[in-house]
Amino acid sequence: MDAFLQNFLDWPLLLDSLPALLGTGLVNTLILSLFSTVLGIVAGMVLALMAVSNTRWLMFPAQVFIDVFRGLPAALVILVVGQGLAPIGLSIFGPNPYPLAIVALALISSAYIAEIFRSGIQSVGRGQMYACQALGMTYWSGMRHVIVPQGVRRILPALANQFISIVKDSSLVYFLGLLTSQRDLFTIGQNTAVNTANLSPLVAAGVVYLLITVPLTHAINHIDRWTNRFSNPGARGGKPAPRSLRAARREAAMQSQAAAAGIAERRP
Prior knowledge:
- This protein is an all-alpha fold.
- Helix content is 81%, strand content 0%.
- The protein has a single domain (2-231), classed as MetI-like fold (Orthogonal Bundle), CATH 1.10.3720.
- This is ABC transmembrane type-1 domain-containing protein.
- The chain crosses the membrane at residues 20-52, 64-86, 98-117.
């Protein structure tokens, strides 16, 4: 038991590794995760809109991209992008591997985020698009102003989970070789554990990862419950909608259904 505690919970060594983990590793991990997630969200939204469109030449390449980058291991993508594009990255960014690492992580996250966006978009009833078209809105205008905003609100927990996955996948960047100032949480913990022949620094790195992921998960769940309570006034903890408001909603729903039926009848 003493040997186990000494190997995993050497408190002096664990505390000595925290300054490097928090000052360098945490900053670099967040930089990698945030930039790759932002790029992944932008690319994922484009891919999702292509995938749900009715145009075959938009649907097919989007589906191929999603299938490929969801099917490949993250380590393989990081190595292929980091080493395959190394000459280009060296001429543009110098010896810093971060830009190529961000590109690799963004490619991975965009494929998963595209599926998340697509599920959110397709969860919105078809009648709302029919109602938009009955009001004279184009397909893309209806998607932008009506369908996508509703779908995005429904997928916030899934997006948060994807960010957590990117935080953990960022540990694979050490394959590309990092300078001392570029090390992420996992690399610092691993190097210190190898140098000291003790796993306490890796335990400390794991604690820092948990400090990122666990509060984020609970915060997103709280926001999701809060938005659902106010979007469904009759739900538990919320006030019931006034009678006039409920009547207006029923009337709007009936108009949407009537518009949808009219469009369906006019179709050849």
